User: Fold this.
Amino acid sequence: MNNFSYSIPTIIHFGKNQLHHLKEIKEKASKVLLVYGGGSIKKSGLYESVVNELKEAGIEFTECCGIEPNPRIESVRKGVKICRENNINAVLAVGGGSVIDAAKIIAAGAVYQGDPWELVLDGSKIKSALPLYSVLTLSATGSEMDKFAVISDLSKNEKWGTASDCITPVMSILDPQNTFSVSKKQTAAGTADMMSHTFENYFTNVKGAYLQSALCEAVLKTCIKYGPIAVENPSDYEARANLMWAGSLAINGLLSYGAEVKWCVHPMEHELSAFYDITHGEGLAILTPVWMKYVVNKDRSKVGDMAKYGRNVWNLSGSDEEVCSAAIEKTRTFFTHSMKMPSSLREVGITDKTNFKEMAKKAANGCKGSYVPLSEDDIYSIYEEAL
Ligand code: NZQ
Ligand code: ZN
Assistant:
């Protein structure tokens, strides 16, 4: 196990009817930027409840709405401008990962002299940020409890992740009831996303991090048990609650501390979203089984790791080779059958290889130092296989 410094500072208020905690914002700020997406919170009634809480607490607010899935830098710039013009001193995101990610860079951009895209390209430039709060409405990214933000500039086919402790939310409200209205498609995509975060942490070359590995297996089993239940019955509280907490734990550092590895499926997927604006979790569900098969074929010493996953997560038995193959197949059919997700790039509208070379080049850079190092040619082959 590697050395590490533990720091997961976000206060979480988890469970039913936690919105009254919004008054805690008053301890740090009096004028808030309320950031939200395309209207789901208005439909569900959450918007009204949030606004009532802010008013009751005597917190003034200005709105920044219309944040897109795969949030755009243009929306971030708009939010930064509003902050500056209105002397905003805290940001409250109400939504999924896209809204929270945009709010993070708005919070950092508001106190930065240059263009916020510079903060996306280089997280070390984020030296401070307005305090950020969130009310999560979609279990997926873990943005509610982590230091990352992913922003796109689709005019350049670019989508990059940035990171800074300064943008980690101060407090997040996780009420599983707020996810009852999430569509089947987004529920499945969100579950695939948190599973992918867990896989990225689980398949590491660091030896002896037994506890982290066992925690990863527990998160994966939680997703496998409750993902299909939430897809079938969106108002199942137990399923929504377990998925919500799994999503936060998958990426907040708990699973990776001491077992760090460079992620690889995420850089590959970010290129799919950058070029084709597809849903992040769907891209991950398509790429993950293909990546698994590719890396165990490229490096046969990894068959044992995949077999361990098959035995501990899927209860499979047999030789390492048998369990390895069966585990990859189980993963694929879990996404396509149990979660009813697309199984190929064609199914999400990517019909030819035109951009694969450029995408592979960009992704290869992000994959350096990963579990099984992949070249541009390797990544091109994975895209081809996924087509
Ligand atoms: O915009 P609204 O109207 O709110 O609708 C959203 C959106 O259309 C809808 N939605 C959200 N909550 C809902 C709801 N619909 C009904 N009821 C609710 N309660 O769902 C759609 C997708 O929302 P989005 O926020 O885009 O989804 P998600 O949470 O999966 O976020 C995806 C983004 O996060 C990035 C992804 O790349 C992508 O850009 N990621 C962020 C990470 C992080 N910050 O750590 C890590 C991840 O790996 C990921 O890259
Ligand atoms: Zn992700």
